[in-house]
Amino acid sequence: MDRYRNTCPLSQQQLIDEYFIEYRAFVLAIAAYLDRLDRSVDRNAETEFRYTAFRKALHELVSDEPGRAERVQQILSDPNVTLLEERDRQGAFGAFDASRLSSREGGDGR
């Protein structure tokens, strides 16, 4: 994707020198989180929408295609732009729950 080409003013080496340690910590934190999920006493959420979205997002991270941040944002975002009559919850869940879509739109699933 050419639209991402040459949009960062730093070289790869400059980025590595400046940010490697910071992002290394993020990767280790994700690895630890996944290990805790694997070791949990009950493996009862492997089809839960946030777990599924997280794993899809991780898959995008190893892609060689530019635009990973945009694709990950889309995976974790609600694609529905229809305004709600009233707020349906106080807090966000951090990922899109497709099962809530049909109840939000009157039950027709679109």
What is the structure about, briefly put?
With 110 residues, the chain is mainly α.
Query: Average pLDDT across residues?
Result: 86
| Individual helix count | 4
CA radius of gyration: 18 Å
Domain module tally:
2
Main beta sheet, described? none
* Residue windows where pLDDT falls under 50 for at least 5 positions: 106-110
What is the strand content? under 5%
Range of helix content: 40-55%
Q: What overall form do the CA principal axes indicate? A: flat
Tell me the series of helices and strands, N- to C-terminal.
HHHH
β-strand number: 0
Structural class designation: mainly alpha
Distance between the termini: 31 Å
List the helices and strands and how they pair.
Blueprint: H1 12-39, H2 49-61, H3 68-76, H4 99-104
Helix pairs in contact: 2-3
Main traits of this protein?
mainly alpha, 110 residues, disordered C terminus, flat, 0% strand
Please characterize this protein's 3D structure.
With 110 residues, the protein is mainly alpha-helical. It folds into 2 domains: 37 residues; 66 residues, no CATH class. The longest helix has 28 residues. The C terminus is likely disordered.
